[in-house]
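User: For documentation purposes, I need each entry recorded in a consistent format: the amino acid sequence on its own, followed directly by the corresponding structure tokens. There are two entries in this batch. Please keep commentary to a minimum and don't merge the entries.

Assistant: Recorded as requested. Entry 1:
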Amino acid sequence: MEYRTVGRTGVKVSPLVLGTMSFGAEADEAASREMYRAARERGINFFDTADVYSGGVSEEWLGKFSAAERDDVVIASKAFYPVGADVNAQGLSRRHLIQAVEGSLMRLGTDRIDFYFVHAFDEETPIEETLRALDDLQRSGKILYPAVSNWAAWQIATALGISARESLSRFELVEPMYSLVKRQAEVEILPLAQAENLGVISYSPLGGGLLTGKYRAGARPEQGRLVENARYGDRYSRESDVATAERFAAFADDAGASTVTLAVAWAMGQPGVTAPIVAGRNPGQLEASLAALDFGMSPEMRARITALSATPAPATDRAEVLTGKWS
């Protein structure tokens, strides 16, 4: 396996990350352990979790599964969303981040978290407050690198500027949503990451299940996030998304390839993406995603798949800046 370096950290990771949101939710402990082992057997060394996944069970199980090989794996966790009834058991304040890290360390059974994500943007806490807390956590060795998920490019850029000005540890890894039906990250987040040498692990390469080939005209599966989770259903409810998914499924049929494998391989080959996050409800479901590690996608095939969805509008309203056609 050809490992990739996360930005400027020097840390080498597999080209796929195993996401553990299903651990303790759709997947019981036995299935979760089997998925962990399947990932390790394929050379995956990067695992993504969060304090809110299954009420902390995901962290507990990941810590248990990786205990005997902790120094050989890279673990990322996150904080922001409510983890209790108390009004302060959420957000990105110094108070909550310190408590959240301590809780995650205990559940993971480890002395450090390799990449620690702020899970969303906190409009009530100054960015400086959050960055100073992360800097202190890094200096204490409890986290090794701060990271950021679900922030807009301008918010990330603002944080990088503050970190540089105040000599604080900066974000080294970004986690945006990215798939053939959600390509907004191409506009500013991925270019920012490339310009600032940030690592990128993207989530939902299957578009919440929309790109699995199960969602076609007049057909919907009985199970799946788009059916069972209203948030995911709303996220991928646009007619254009469904149309893209149908074109993609037809392309995969013609190519004689798995839609899941193709979708993951496409995201894995995007310039600027260090590694997409893959997951599954069970080992069998995960296997098609892991198969992307061995799938050789040619530049021509990648271009044909990319053309199946609309290219997002550029960040500037002067499109000629990108096309070179000045007027």
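Entry 2:
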Amino acid sequence: MKKTLSFYDFCDEWEKWEDRKNTFSYEGKKALFEYLEEYEESTGEEIELDIIALCCDYTEYESFEEFKADYSNIKTLGELQDRTQYIPIYNNDGTESERFIIQNF
């Protein structure tokens, strides 16, 4: 049996994990939720919500400079986007922020 989650349900699930609830910012959770919904729609494959797996599979970065501290071999944002799934995070006004999420590699 599967349950369809709204974004608010998705956020509530994170709150149940005390040591994981701050892994992503509110805006990061929104971007990740929208990405996962789009993935389900485009593939027809339902995703089972697993907070621990999401924390292991994805990382939010404040900026490309912060990312480069972890992956010094990647020199440009384009190179990063060619290498892994890149999920932009948007500001409240709809503009793209410096923050983003990647699928870890």
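Summary note for entry 2:
The first helix runs from residue 7 to 15.
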